[in-house]
Amino acid sequence: MTDDFRASDLQRDELAGVVDLFGALAPGELEEALAELAFKRQASVDADVVAEAVDDAIAAFALVRYENDGETLLAPGPAAFPSLPEHAEDLPHILEVPTREVDRETADAAVAERLRTAAARAVAEEDDAEMRRLLDVTYDVDVWSDTVAVDDIRARLDDALDGDS
Is the pTM of this model over 0.70? Predict the structure, then answer.
């Protein structure tokens, strides 16, 4: 192996694109997929780097982590614009990973809870930049899901930002 994948090599939308190829992936399956991509680039990938990139993508709402039948799964999130990294189209032929249907109800609930928690924290910490970012995410959620109601979250963020003016 000539090089290592760096966290910056693992773009949020590309992670979402790899996950989207399969519908949803367990974190270990995503790591396996990224190891295959690294191999094709004659590189290696470190589990800590993958974990950091996945955590970043979840924090950015590009991936959503949810539980389904006792299994932790990742699915493309509301802020993702899934794209495929080079050689990713080969992954379904290489990996012995099932294609999964995303449990929309569970994924939607996970996003709603995560967004409520993040918004409450941002308001409590008076973090204007984070409140603005989360406000943008509420609009992404509106397009991504028919069931997640974010009007109350949006109003709370708007009120908090208006109070700073």
Answer: yes
